């Protein structure tokens, strides 16, 4: 069961957050959720794939870091070898919550007290007087951007479904030993269907702000080859 708590200066004044990136800090993940508002930055580094939640019958977008659970090919020692860190990774161990029992727009900053990012070394969350440190203020801004992006993404995913713009991806990753690894369960933008939309439909997507992230997601697929190269290099050199 998650050990989340509302972040307060009284309860968490002395907590510190690790600012390195490593497996033992919880960064050994294959992918992370991203929102359309950050697709422009994400596509510079990572493939953007989509996955369907069958229980909720909904889609979400993910930046891909590897091809199997627990594999992050961007981890090099104690650093993340990319220029952009997806917001859902950058905000950890913090998250957005709501007051219990209230269905309202109020938001609270929560913290995962079981996160391996918390420890005796790292960056302070609060100053000695209980005021937020610049680090926490920056995290709060990232949380705000991520929360707004998540709320705005509903229209984007509705448009993908309305125009049937997602197709299943089945990717075979060649390995240095001659075997292949298959990546299944993800979707990508169907470029042929996007090209086939009529001018009115394109105008609707553009007017709603959906066209740019669509093209960013398409452009990001060029990073699949780079990710395969990272995988091959990792296997060759360990």
Q: How does this model look, in words?
A:
- The chain is α+β, with helices and mostly antiparallel strands.
- The chain has one domain.
- It has eight helices and 13 strands.
- The strands form five sheets. The chain has a three-stranded antiparallel sheet, covered by helices on one side. The chain has a three-stranded antiparallel sheet with strand order 10-2-11, with no helix packed on it. A three-stranded antiparallel sheet has the order 3-5-4.
- It is globular, with a radius of gyration of 20 Å.
- The relative contact order is 0.18.
Average pLDDT confidence is 92
Strand arrangement, major sheet: 1-9-8
Helix content: 25-40%
The coarse silhouette is globular
Count of alpha and pi helical runs:
8
- Please outline the major beta sheet: 3 strands, antiparallel
Instruction: Please provide the ordered H/E string of secondary-structure elements.
Output: EHEEHEEEEHEEEEHEEHHHH
Unreliable spans are: none
Give the terminus-to-terminus CA distance: 35 Å
Q: Structural class of the secondary structure composition?
A: alpha+beta
Q: Which range does the strand content fall in?
A: 15-25%
In total, how many beta strands? 13
Q: What would you report as the Rg, rounded to the nearest angstrom?
A: 20 Å
Number of domains: 1
Q: What's the arrangement of secondary structure elements?
A:
Blueprint (H helix, E strand, L loop, with lengths): L3 E3 L2 H4 L3 E2 L13 E4 L4 H4 L5 E6 L4 E7 L10 E2 L2 E2 L6 H4 L3 E4 L10 E5 L5 E2 L3 E2 L9 H29 L3 E9 L5 E10 L1 H6 L2 H9 L3 H10 L2 H15 L1
Antiparallel strand pairs: 1-9, 2-10, 2-11, 3-5, 4-5, 6-7, 8-9, 12-13
